[in-house]
Design brief:
The protein is an alpha/beta fold and 301 residues long. The chain has 2 domains: 206 residues, P-loop containing nucleotide triphosphate hydrolases (Rossmann fold); 30 residues. Helices cover 69% and strands 8% of the residues. It is built from 13 helices and 5 strands. A 5-stranded parallel beta sheet has the order 2-3-1-4-5, sandwiched between helices. Helix 2 crosses helix 3, helix 4 packs parallel to helix 5 and helix 12 runs antiparallel to helix 13. It is globular, with a radius of gyration of 29 Å. The chain binds adenosine monophosphate. Adenosine monophosphate binds next to helix 2 and helix 3. Catalyzes the reversible transfer of the terminal phosphate group between ATP and AMP. Plays an important role in cellular energy homeostasis and in adenine nucleotide metabolism. It catalyses: AMP + ATP = 2 ADP. Its main location: cytoplasm. It is found in: Cytoplasm. It comes from Bradyrhizobium betae.
């Protein structure tokens, strides 16, 4: 599964990304974290990024695109990843599209966490207070002044991505003002509706089956059943997911269509078999009758 988490600073992207890492067994690729590590290590990238980051500006596109491209190639990202804090500009999104195409990878979804801006400031203040309480070092860009600048850069440079991905039918918007577990649940339902992951019940039944190949062949042998389950799942998700309910409905329709098709096929097959059987029977009957006639004639003679 490959997804992008989009949202202003303080919207909970990092928290949700970490929860998704545990739930789906994929890695979180946070450009902010990578850049902070580079700054701490004093690498050339870190030296380039340090000042910009401290002032709340954006690090040049080519720097972050290079970091992400290398990171996607690491073996632990093979299973999937969540991009957190990247892309942040339209040129970065275009570069990502080109990168994924070149690597033959597909993006499953872009999840936007929509939040109320005035609530963000108090969220950041709470986060800073909690970090201080735990004796942790507070980020240089976690002050209200720098946050105001980061919010402005989000509005000007990152928000256009909402239009970019919505045009490409990749965007799903989730209310980021809900409680953490509610946001997690809404994201999961959305991913199920999009077919990026399985629902809990389905995932359980798949893991319970003896082997992957056995469950695969069983699924192949019962297309109608699979279609019906898919339709049920897609319909349920369409009901609960906030957006895009349309695509979920479409998926449900498609699945229902698939079920009907499979059923038709089965009926046709059965009819053909029956026709073949009755033809065979009548041939046999005819042969028997002819044989009887011959014996009668011989007896007469
Ligand atoms: P974050 O932890 O995502 O809030 O990022 C912290 C800082 O790192 C940002 O304020 C930027 O200065 C820099 N940064 C992180 N990701 C990017 C990116 N994709 N493009 C440019 N700068 C970034």
């Amino acid at each position: 599964m490959r997804i992008i988490l989009l949202g202003p600073p303080g919207s909970g992207k990092g928290t949700q990304a970490q929860l998704m890492v545990q739930r789906y067994g994929i890695v979180q690729l946070s450009t902010g974290e990578m850049l902070r590590a580079a700054v701490a290590a004093g690498t050339p990238v870190g030296l380039k990024a340090k000042e910009v980051m401290a002032s709340g500006g954006l690090v040049p596109d080519d720097v972050v695109v290079g970091i992400i491209s290398d990171r996607i190639d690491q073996p632990d990202a093979r299973n999937g990843f969540i991009l957190d804090g990247f892309p942040r500009t339209v040129p970065q999104a275009e570069a990502l599209d080109a990168l994924l195409k070149q690597k033959h990878l597909k993006l499953d979804a872009v999840i936007e966490l929509r939040v109320n801006e005035s609530a963000l400031l108090s969220r950041v203040e709470t986060r800073v207070a909690q970090m201080r309480e735990r004796g942790e070092e507070v980020r240089a860009d976690d002050t209200p002044e720098v946050l105001t600048k980061r919010l402005a850069s989000y509005r000007n440079q990152t928000e256009p991505l909402i239009h970019y991905y919505s045009e490409r039918r990749k965007l799903s918007t989730i209310d980021g003002m809900m409680a953490i577990d509610e946001v997690t649940g809404a994201i999961h339902r959305q991913l199920v509706a999009l077919g990026a992951t399985e629902s809990k019940a389905r995932a359980k039944s798949t893991s319970n089956s003896t082997s992957k190949s056995a469950s695969k062949s069983a699924a192949r042998a019962a297309p109608a059943k699979k279609g019906a389950a898919k339709a049920k799942m897609a319909k349920k998700s369409a009901k609960t997911a906030k957006k895009p309910a349309k695509s979920a409905k479409k998926a449900a329709k498609k699945a229902v269509k698939g079920t009907k098709k499979a059923a038709k096929k089965t009926v046709k097959k059965a009819a053909k078999k029956a026709a073949r059987k009755s033809a065979k029977k009548s041939v046999k009957k005819g042969a028997k009758k002819a044989a009887k006639k011959v014996t009668k004639k011989r007896a007469k003679r």
